[in-house]
Design a protein that fits this description.
The chain has 30 helices and 28 strands. By secondary structure, the chain is of the alpha+beta class.
């Protein structure tokens, strides 16, 4: 099954999204369709043998919306942009050729100028110049397309500006309409002189016509699209209300004597435009995480071709190209170091705060920053295959998905539209036929009911929260694969941690030293041992060497190295005889442990590997080696307990080792000596006890358990299989991010509930008031006030979702 995230322009209404989904699901081969009006995307799971992308795009176009193909991250001009439709490809190619020509001209100039060293000494300035040039060209292209009916990449901010312009024109014209209205005269008992000798109704007709036609156009287009898609959306309700009031007023002006309410129609358009403008401004701020990611990739790359260094656009790099990176440069694409070494800041991608050392054979990641040295690397992943692009696509997919709570809200919104239409008709009949009021009053009540019942807030309640929640996760290096994965962690009762590589570092480390007092100190013990082990490739030897490096005592050299199979080794260091190995080696050489025997037994019972060291024929000390606990693991376990979530450790290690680590971390539930194939079964056992279980792992053998769990958390440094199987990816490889992921999930779920509660409560309260249920107490609503209330409700929902960015999250460094 294939997945496509399609970019859909002009989709402002959540109910339009439902119509698109319904139409797509009528296609044979389409299994799922999720449409998100907040970010203008439609995610479709389909069988590519039955249906094509062109078929999907045609259906969306038939709904009256513009589909601009897949929303895929591709490098271009220093940003990651959406794929372009056919009509924009020629311009894209021309821009790319122009950029390449500029790069070639720059390179040729450098080859022939005596100031070559000055140019090359300022890569940052040169780099910035290219980026500015590309951004300028891209901006110009955007403006050109916008002037001809809208650019395929039209953003929510662009649509917000369009709404703002329409609102400002409508607002300016609505002021005189109101000043010359009957409503103004009644309220303030003032009759203003009408210019040009016109009657107040004719003047209002002229001004209101501009407001209704120009200001109301987006709603008529939306209504047409909704009807084409087979749904009654918010635009249908607004259009129905505006046109009913306007047409009735026109008829009363020119065909028969009667009261008009041009001011109601004009104010209705103006207030709804204002509400949409504010709402879109809030919604455009929900996607800042994507915008940050889009600016990480550099626009240009230095490539070695035929022994020459040339600069080309990043999207022109091919797999196998050799690229050159200098200090301060951003790495353009993923690759493998082939020459040189450096330290790279990978915090933007992995969240790792410390620079990572890179040598020949190490992998480098696109959008990370080279710090100290220059190096060359071979491109292994380019374009949409880079780590950055995959992260962008994953976040896009998550933001386009539909939360479980949204499905209920969608059904409620659909029925609420029917309630609005039927309620408006019944309200009109009740007041006009049963109560016997005049036509204008009956229509006023009816129109107010239709307007105030618009389910816009209900449709936005959860998508806005999902957008902010997934973006907040991305900011913290936590990738939720979809909206269900975002909701899931909030409901967990237990979290199962695979021990090795998750709670522990995943490699042997020196965790304890013990000396006999004579003849060496701890530093001497480590120094002599590291020198003796210098020629060994055994994992235990690597642990000793690493510990000596960290303490700065790896400065001695060994001679006369002799391996003793099954026991250890012997060497001469600084004229002293050093013997390193197991207890059997000490016994064979008849070396007394000088009181270290009990300490060795204690270390072994704790599940640690004990290395015995003798110097000049006497026991010198012990080196305990184990898989060290991650610094953040203990705090993580404590925080989970405070949240009421039970931490569980799952491991294939023996019981003694497992219990030692669990005791150090404060974990009470330990499942040890588990075969790799049985991990999923152990997770299932916990689920059969009624617990919702999360699983945290990093290896291939963790993938079945991740799939079995209610929420699978993959450590980002783990295998691709584990990452693909999990629901949540922790890019920092820090188990503490499980706590942060749960907190984000809980905060997002609270916002969803708040928004849904507000939207539902607003409608339940507003409908009867709009219908005149409190008219006996002198409390009534005019259509324009209903429009203001409806718009205000949508703004509140969108703004409340953006407050999620201020969530108090736990930060635990590794």
């Amino acid at each position: 099954m294939s997945e496509a995230v399609l970019q859909v322009c002009t989709m402002k209404d959540p109910l339009c999204a439902q119509g698109v989904e319904q139409k797509l699901l009528t296609l044979s081969g389409v299994h799922h369709a999720h449409t998100n009006a907040v970010n203008g995307t439609t995610t479709v799971h389909y069988d590519e043998r039955t249906v094509t992308l062109a078929d999907l795009e045609a259906v969306i176009d038939d709904c009256g919306l513009r589909c601009h193909g897949e929303s895929l991250p591709l490098h271009h001009g220093g940003h990651v942009v959406h794929s372009m439709p056919a009509e924009a490809e020629h311009e894209h190619e021309a821009m790319e050729r122009e950029a390449t020509d500029h790069a070639a001209m720059d390179n040729e100039a450098m080859d022939h100028t005596p100031m070559e060293h000055e140019v090359m000494d300022h890569p940052a300035d040169e780099h910035a110049g290219h980026e500015m040039a590309h951004d300028h060209d891209a901006a110009g292209a955007m403006e050109d397309h916008s002037a001809h009916g809208g650019h395929p990449g039209m953003t929510m901010a662009d649509m917000a500006r369009d709404m703002r312009n329409r609102f400002l024109v409508s607002f300016v014209l609505t002021i005189p309409i109101f000043l010359y209205s009957t409503l103004f005269t009644r309220l303030f008992n003032i009759n203003l002189p009408v210019p040009f000798g016109l009657s107040p109704d004719v003047l209002a007709f002229v001004l209101a016509t501009v407001v209704v036609i120009y200001g109301g156009k987006p709603f008529y287009v939306g209504a047409r699209n909704g009807l084409k898609a087979g749904v009654l959306n918010m635009s249908v309700l607004v259009s129905l209300s505006v046109l009913a009031g306007y047409i009735f007023s026109v008829a009363a002006t020119f065909l028969f004597e009667g009261e008009v309410f041009y001011e109601a129609a004009a104010m209705l358009v103006t207030f709804v435009l204002f509400g949409h403008w504010m709402e879109m401004r809030a919604r455009s701020g929900t996607n800042q995480a994507i915008e940050k990611l889009l600016t990480l990739a550099p626009p240009m790359a230095r490539v070695e071709q035929d022994g020459q260094e040339i600069e080309i656009p990043t999207d022109g790099v091919k797999v196998g190209d050799i690229l050159i990176v200098r200090p301060g440069d951003k790495i353009p694409v993923d690759g493998e170091v082939v020459e040189g070494h450096s330290n790279v800041n990978e915090s933007a991608i992995t969240g790792e705060s410390r620079p990572v050392k890179k040598e020949v054979g190490d992998n480098v990641i696109s959008a990370t920053i080279n710090q100290t040295g220059s190096f060359k690397f071979r491109a292994t992943k380019v374009g949409a295959d880079t780590t950055l692009s995959q992260i962008v696509k994953l976040v896009q997919s998550a933001q386009s998905s539909k939360a479980p709570a949204q499905r209920l809200a969608d059904r409620a919104a659909h029925y609420l539209v029917l309630v609005a239409v039927i309620g408006g008709i019944l309200t009109f009949l009740a007041w006009y036929v049963l109560v016997g009021t005049d036509l204008v009053i009956a229509m006023t009540f009816a129109i107010t009911v239709v307007v105030i019942t618009c389910p816009d807030a209900l449709g936005l309640a959860t998508p806005t929260a999902v957008m902010v929640g997934t973006g907040l996760g991305a900011d913290h290096g936590i990738l939720f694969k979809d909206a269900e994965a975002l909701e899931g962690p909030a409901h967990l009762d237990a979290v199962v941690f695979d021990k090795t590589g998750t709670l522990t570092v995943g490699e042997p480390q020196v965790v304890e030293l013990a000396v006999a007092g004579n003849p060496v100190s701890e530093e001497d013990l480590l120094r002599l041992s590291a020198a003796a082990e210098g020629g060994s490739e055994h994992p235990l030897a690597e642990a000793i060497l690493k510990s000596a490096d960290e303490r700065g005592v790896n400065d001695a050299k060994a001679v006369g190295f002799e391996a003793i199979p099954g026991h250890g080794l012997r060497a001469q260091v600084d004229g002293r005889s050093v013997l390193i190995g197991n207890r059997r080696l000490m016994d064979r050489e008849e070396i007394s442990l000088n009181g270290l025997g009990e300490k060795a037994a204690e270390m072994a019972s704790a599940g640690r590997t004990v290395v015995h060291v003798a110097v000049d024929g006497e026991a010198a000390g012990l080196i305990a080696i184990a898989d060290a606990v991650r610094p953040s693991a203990k705090v993580t376990i404590r925080k989970l307990r405070e949240m009421g979530i039970e931490p569980v450790m799952l491991t294939g290690d023996n019981v003694a080792t497992a219990k030692q680590v669990a005791e150090e971390l404060g974990i009470e539930t330990v499942i040890a000596e588990v075969l790799p194939g049985d991990k999923a079964a152990k997770v299932k056992d916990l689920q059969t006890n009624g617990q919702r279980v999360g699983m945290v792992g990093d290896g291939i053998n963790d993938a079945p358990a991740l799939a079995q769990s209610d929420v699978g958390f993959a450590i980002g440094a783990g295998t691709d299989v584990a990452v693909e199987t999990a629901d949540v990816v922790l890019m920092k490889s820090n188990p503490a991010d499980v706590v942060t992921a749960i907190e984000i999930s809980q905060a997002t779920l609270r916002k969803m509930k708040q928004n849904l509660g507000w939207a539902a409560g607003y409608n339940l309260t507003a409908i009867p008031v709009a219908a005149g249920a409190l008219a006996w107490a002198g409390i009534t609503l005019r259509p324009e006030i209903g429009a203001l209330a409806m718009s205000g409700s949508s703004i509140i929902v969108a703004f409340n979702a953006t407050l999620l960015k201020r969530a108090d999250l736990t930060e635990i460094g590794d």
